[in-house]
Design a protein that fits this description.
Pfam families: Radical_SAM (PF04055). Its EC number is 1.3.98.3. Involved in the heme biosynthesis. Catalyzes the anaerobic oxidative decarboxylation of propionate groups of rings A and B of coproporphyrinogen III to yield the vinyl groups in protoporphyrinogen IX. It comes from Sunxiuqinia elliptica. Strands 9-10-8-7-6-5-4-1-13 form a 9-stranded mixed beta sheet, sandwiched between helices. The chain folds into 2 domains: 302 residues, pyruvate-formate lyase- activating enzyme, CATH 3.80.30.20; 83 residues, Arc Repressor Mutant, subunit A. Helix 3 runs parallel beside helix 4, helix 3 crosses helix 12 and helix 8 packs parallel to helix 10. The chain has 17 helices and 19 strands. The protein is globular and about 60 Å long. The longest helix is centred in the N-terminal third of the chain and has 19 residues. By secondary structure, it is an alpha/beta fold.
Length: 458
């Protein structure tokens, strides 16, 4: 797939990434802890019924300059122990409000770098869930890992705790790139780590890469993809580096090395697409690839793919997300809520027996409709107005009036071969996948007049 340069110039504008709707920068500090605790209780009567758990471990031993996540740079083992003790307390505090007839469908450990923790601390938290909750058949239990902090003993420990997928943040195979972005170089080659994981039947492997970093070229990133294919992961992700130095000041340093142009970033995307699809992988949304028999690929084929802050998931593993740890964002049916901002603040509040929500958002009925529409576009590259209307017990005409929508808003995308539409359906083309954020923004009535800042779509 080749993306014409004029389309890049035309659509490379700031738009939300739509990992949630509304995006997190619309959350407000007028949403307080009491609002969240009430919403947790009410969530027991909401859909989806399943419980999805997110655990945020902010610790890293050094700061990767590209990072847009919430991190705390330290090697202090005592602090990590204290933090994990607080995490367990928070889990028990929220657990008292959850209906234990509901089942866990998904657990995701993110960061930061979860695997800088001693494995024992991860095991203690996992034991709470496995001993006190029921799980669906084949739950998704995943952890993000920095390969530089992995060895065979650690991998074996993770799998003994019940993890079903290990995601390796490779980012790039070139040491020059890793050194420039201040990313640790693994001592054990990625292919060897994958072999260690694959010794355990039923555990899948995901490899994460970033394109748009200093010293990356179109040719070098193509070589990275070829090497990744030989490693044969179950899933692979190619994230487009989001340069937002007004949010993450450390990113400013990358400008000293020089960043690839938008045109070259697009070519990197094209090279990844060509190689991954030629190798038999199925493209998922903007940046994911999965083997044809992977649950995500099957869900895309059936137009039942879903998405939350933890990434893409199937309808079977979809649940309301309860987040634990510093800055964790819970995604319930009716609200979003974000935890305390700093490690010290988080530990202090939990030690006092209090949960602190610093900001959040209560969704209106209109928000929920737009959220579902944007999810369908971003996940399944498809929209049926009739299906959305039936889901929300309304009419197609009412939906379109609510969004101030008319087909003329799509005509430019049609002319550029990004989508096709009928009276009821919108179908995104392969070329249109690269501009999903732009297409989704058409349905976002909050963008008009917004003063929020977003990364560019390319």
């Amino acid at each position: 797939m080749k993306i014409p340069v004029p389309l890049i110039d035309k659509y490379n504008v700031p738009v939300p990434r739509y990992t949630s709707y509304p995006p997190a920068n619309f959350f407000g500090d007028d949403f307080v802890t009491g609002d969240y605790l009430l919403a947790v209780e009410e969530s027991n009567e909401k859909e989806p019924e399943n419980i999805s758990i997110y655990l945020h471990v902010p610790f890293c031993t050094q700061l990767c300059l590209y990072c847009g996540c919430n991190t705390h740079i330290t090697k202090d083992q005592d602090m990590m122990q204290h933090y994990m003790d607080a995490l367990k307390k928070e889990i028990h505090m929220i657990g008292k409000l959850l209906d234990r007839k509901r089942k866990i469908s998904q657990i995701h450990w993110g960061g930061g770098t979860p695997n800088v923790l001693p494995a024992q601390l991860i095991g203690e938290v996992m034991a709470i869930f496995t001993s006190e909750y029921e799980f669906i058949d084949k739950p998704e239990i995943a952890i993000e890992c920095n390969p530089a902090h992995l060895d065979e003993a650690y991998i074996d420990a993770l799998i003994s705790f019940g993890f079903t997928r290990i995601s390796l943040g490779v980012q790039d195979f070139q040491e020059k790139v890793l050194n420039a972005v201040h990313r640790e170089v693994p001592e054990i080659p990625i292919e060897e780590l994958v072999k260690m994981i694959r010794k355990h039947p039923g555990v899948s492997v995901n490899l994460d890469f970033i394109y748009g970093l200093p010293y990356q070229t179109v040719e070098s990133f193509a070589g990275t993809m070829e090497k990744a294919i030989t490693i044969n992961p179950d899933r692979l992700v190619t994230f487009s580096y989001a340069h937002v130095p007004w949010v993450k000041k450390a990113q400013k340093k990358l400008e000293d090395y020089g960043l690839p142009s938008p045109e070259n970033k697009v070519k990197m995307f094209e090279e990844a697409w060509a190689r991954m699809t030629r190798a038999g992988y199925i493209p998922i949304g903007l940046d994911h690839y999965a083997k044809p028999d992977d649950d995500m690929a099957v869900a895309l084929k059936n137009r039942s793919l879903h998405r939350n802050f933890q990434g893409y998931c199937t309808r079977e593993t979809t649940g309301q997300v309860y987040a634990f740890g510093v800055t964790g964002i819970s995604q319930l049916e009716d609200v979003y809520a974000q935890n305390a901002r700093t490690v010290k603040e988080y530990i202090d509040q939990i030690d006092r027996g209090m949960i602190q929500v610093v900001k959040g958002y209560a969704l209106s009925d209109t928000d929920k409709i737009i959220r579902q529409i944007i999810n369908e576009i971003m996940c399944n590259q498809y929209l049926s107005w009739t299906q959305i209307a039936e889901q929300f017990n309304t009419s197609v005409e009412t939906l379109k009036d609510l969004l101030n929508f008319n087909e003329e808003k799509l005509d430019e995308f049609v002319a550029d071969d990004l989508l096709s539409y009928t009276e009821d359906e919108i179908v995104i083309t392969d070329l249109g996948r690269f501009f999903l954020r732009n297409i989704a923004a058409v349905f976002d009535i909050r963008l008009e007049g917004s003063i929020q800042k977003f990364s560019k779509s390319v």
